[in-house]
Write a structure and sequence with these properties.
Elements: H1 13-17, H2 22-32, E1 46-50, H3 57-70, E2 73-76, H4 87-104, E3 107-112, H5 114-125, E4 130-136, H6 150-156, H7 166-173, E5 180-185, E6 204-209, H8 220-229
Parallel strand pairs: 1-2, 1-3, 3-4, 4-5, 5-6
Length: 233
């Protein structure tokens, strides 16, 4: 038998309640990004932004708009609400990546929460099409149940909380063979921050910021971390 996954609790109730901060973070982000002075300008390469669980392209629009203004060719994922990976969605997302890479060269992937899990698997399957992967508060390590949406995810997908398969999850936890940047917050009220970090490797980096989980796509520190690293070859 394989060794069980580490027991990591989800964020406690005070941090979960702290997610209400996102209501203030969104307008603050809009105000702060009226001017992008001081941030490195982009080189025009394509960027694909994948939303988190229950979110869609509308929720990632402020981040995509800011990155577009910095000079990148930014795209939403175009798959509606993220309710979890379905076979047809998996194929549609893979096709979208192939089209973008075919037209414009390798694509940088930004995945918020569950979207980061998808981004890493896209890069694992087609590393020649991916320039870099950024995850924002994504449950990529430790224990996939160490979050406050695990039961809701199971209910929406019409199943009981699934039994974890440690070997399969450990394979997914290994970073794909492209540069990977994990952006996380210790005050995340949804996903345990320890589960949002990449294992140390020559091609991985972990960047700690402050803020809520729901506000990671409207977080000025996250935008700065992205703007500094996106131009890197």
């Amino acid at each position: 038998m394989s060794e069980p996954l580490p027991s990591i609790p989800p964020p406690p109730l005070p941090l979960l309640l702290g997610e209400l901060r996102a209501l203030a973070e969104a307008p603050w982000f809009t105000l702060r990004t009226l001017s992008l002075a001081g941030l490195p300008r982009g080189d025009g390469h394509p960027v694909l932004v994948i939303p988190g669980f229950l979110a869609g392209d509308a929720e990632t629009w402020p981040l995509r708009r800011a990155l577009s203004r910095l000079g990148y060719t930014v795209h939403g994922w175009g798959c509606g609400r993220n309710l979890g990976m379905r076979p047809e969605m998996k194929q549609k997302l893979a096709n979208r990546l192939t089209r973008l890479a075919g037209r414009n060269g390798r694509v940088s992937l930004i995945g918020w929460s569950l979207g980061g899990v998808f981004a890493r698997e896209l890069a694992r399957k087609a590393p020649q099409q991916v320039r870099r992967v950024f995850t924002l508060g994504s449950p990529i390590n430790g224990n996939p149940a160490a979050n406050n949406l695990h039961t809701l995810f199971a209910l929406i997908n019409r199943q009981r909380p699934p039994r974890e398969e440690p070997q399969a999850f450990r394979r997914r936890a290994a970073p794909p063979p492209v540069p990977c940047v994990a952006i996380y917050s210790r005050s995340d009220g949804i996903v345990a921050w320890r589960c949002c970090r990449e294992d140390a490797a020559a091609h991985t980096e972990n960047v700690e910021i402050s803020g809520s989980h729901f506000g990671l796509v409207v977080n000025t520190q996250a935008l700065h971390a992205l703007a500094v690293r996106l131009p890197r070859a």
